[in-house]
Amino acid sequence: MSALPPSPPEPQIDPPNTVVIRTLDAHGVSYRLLPHDEPVFTVAAAAEQRGVIMEEMVKSILLRDRDGKHVMACVTGDVRIDPQAVRAHLGQGWSRLRFASAQEIQEVAGFVQGAVAPVGLPEHIPVLFDRGITECEKVNISSGDPMAGLELATDDLFRVSKAQLAHIAAVE
């Protein structure tokens, strides 16, 4: 009886060349690339493709006020954002918030809708994390490309994104 030949190693997939990857690499952040079989444009589809739970997904939503200012608001994948809570945290100088359009997301943040991340944003866009994100040891974010996600330590994401913490999840 002969021994079976060893299995070939898993192919190494290069990460996409996105601002998210470049920012994490520049800050020496370790991450695990989670490639998708097909492009994803929702948190549920991304969690399914990556084989992870919704509670570890970071849903990143770009919001815009009437004066054209933007904020990136982030919650875990299993909850919704409360735009009024985001506005209350931002304080004076911010008017009613609405979800940015796909065109605005591309023009302002440089991401396609569905591949938005709280990393690599222009400096003038504040980033808010719901406090629920801090309960996760590791999180999943978009790589900036709809064909891959990233898993990294929550502390590293918080540090690189320069996020503020607030209670911004909608109360069900």
Task: Explain how this protein is built.
A five-stranded mixed sheet has the order 4-2-3-5-8. Strands 1-7-6 form a three-stranded antiparallel sheet, sandwiched between helices. The protein has helices at 19-26, 43-50, 83-90, 102-109, 154-161, and strands at 32-35, 58-65, 70-76, 97-99, 127-130, 138-145, 148-153, 164-166. The protein starts with 18 loop residues before the first helix and ends in a 6-residue tail after the last strand. The model has no long low-confidence stretch (mean pLDDT 91). It is an alpha/beta fold and 172 residues long. It has five helices and eight strands.
Give the SSE string. HEHEEHEHEEEHE
Query: How many β strands by DSSP?
Result: 8
Q: What kind of assembly state do the chains in view correspond to? A: single chain
What's the overall average pLDDT, rounded?
A: 91
The unreliable regions are none
Give the name of the CATH superfamily of one domain: YbaK/aminoacyl-tRNA synthetase-associated domain
CATH top-level class of one domain: Alpha Beta
Helix content, binned percent: 10-25%
